[in-house]
Each structure stands twice: as structure tokens, then as C-alpha cells.
Amino acid sequence: MKKTTTLKETIYSKNLDFIMEAHNGMSAKIVEEAGFKGIWASGFTISASLGVRDNNEASWTQVLDVLEFMSDATSIPILLDGDTGYGNFNNARRLVQKLEQRNIAGVCIEDKLFPKTNSFINSKAQPLADVEEFCGKIKAMKDTQQDEDFIVVTRVEAFIAGWGLKEALRRAEAYRQAGADAVLIHSKRSDIKEIEAFMKEWNGRHPVVIVPTKYYSTPTARFKELGINLIIWANHNMRASIDAMQKTARQLHREKSLINVESNVATVEEIFRLQRAEELMAAEKKYFPAKKKVE
Ligand code: SPV
Ligand code: MG
Questions:
Q1: Which ligand is closest in space to the CA of residue 23?
Q2: What is the pLDDT of residue 290?
Q3: Which of 33, 78, 96, 180 has the fewest CB within 10 Å, making it most exposed?
Q4: Global pTM?
């Protein structure tokens, strides 16, 4: 099945599904091997992996380059966190064209203004996109896609920016009518009050995606009851690796020896396996002339 079709079916299926964050080829491969149905190419963690902030400091073509490695390294679909679409409708539709060329299965855009700020920083001060303008962007993206199964998810930031349920619903409904394939309703509360209220009123009219980073203590069974379609574990590979790297770097700096470190890090052989080193060895046997014996 095409990557696009797999992702579309995953989002449209009534079952609760999960995708996980990756930020480069290696982490994308790790997400696939863990058994996930798809990958969240997170703007936050791709920026972080490049050492920059989640404020569109990395250009969109730099993000595309990362995505290309992620896509080549994996066979499951990738949903790009496309921030605001990196500009107006014209930038957003060009993004769709470039994503399809790289076999990316879908993109999520959020109703903020370019350059964006992460939803968990200073969020009350963040102005939202004009609804009509944002709907034009959605339409332009949907009209541009060549593969009918490519999906555009629209992320509603109304709760994040301090607006209430009414504004969240108004926006979600407008985006649905503009042709969005699913709605990501975002909340930064540590409980699920906003998500619950939204789901009750939304009443299953279109697939819903959530990012429970801040309300992490909610049992997954509750999300299922509410009728959520897709959960994104949005930054946990980055957070896990930062923790592991900090511990290892500090220990090596302190101890000036590998003795206590070796057994706590992945083996070199494991890296070879993830890089598919064996495939190259087999290919060399097939395609590369055997070295002539030196007489
Ligand atoms: C991301 O992973 O970049 C997201 C999700 O957009 S969040 O950080 O929760 O805004
Ligand atoms: Mg993001």
C-alpha cells in the first residue's frame, strides 16, 4: 500500500492509532522498528536537532532535506509538522508539491502566523491566522496535491492562544469545510478538560488528532472513550536522546575512561545494523569486481 493511503486509512479508521516523533533518518528508523504505523516529523525536534529554536529558524528547504533522509530510511508514512505552511497559500501549496516529490504522506498546518512560536512558549501572546485566509491556504494545498490520499491536517490553536471552546469549534468547522482531512486540537493544560469539551461538541464529524505532551497523565483508555482517532507522541525520542547524551557526555568528561560507559551505550554493531551495512556488503559482492590477487 502507498504511504499516503496507509496514513489516510490510519487517521480515518475508528480505532485509536499512534504515531511517534522523529527528527532525522536514524530516529525515524527507530520509530518504524518499534512498530508504529507512522512518523511525526516534529518541527520542534527537527529544529532542536539542528540546534535552533522552534521559530522557523531552520528554513523550509532545510527541513525538507531532513525529511528526505527520514523518508529514505523508512517504509512507514511520515506526517510533517509543517508549522504555518511557511508563509501564505502560495508557500504552502509549493510545500505540498515538494513533499509529494519526497514521498511524504501528509502535512499538518497550524493556524498561527509566520514565523511561529512553539505552543508551549508565551502562547497567550500568539496571534492566530485569519480564518478565511487559513481556509484559502487549506484549499490551495488540497488543490495542489497529485495523490488523492495525501492528507492535510489542520491544527487549531484557539485553546493555546487563550480563546475558548466556541472559537475552537468555529475554526475546526471552517477548516473541515475548506477540505482539511482531519483536525488536530491542541491544548497545553495538564488535564483534558478542553479536549473533552471539544470532543463532546464535535461529535465525531471529522477525524481528530491530539498531542498529549502536557496532559501526559491521562490514561490512553480515556482518549479512546472520547473517540480520538490519532495520538502523536510528539517529542519523546528527542527528549530520551538528550537525557542519554547528557549523561554519557558528562560521565566521559568526568571519568576520562570508557570503562563504565561501554555497557550503557548502543554497540557499534547496532549502528551498522540500523544503517543496513550488510546490504552494502552483499551489493559489493554482486556489483563490484573481486579485488585482483596481488601476485
Ligand atoms: C511539534 O512537535 O513540533 C509540535 C507539537 O508542533 S508541540 O510542540 O506540542 O506544539
Ligand atoms: Mg511544531
A1: 1
A2: 79
A3: 33
A4: 0.97
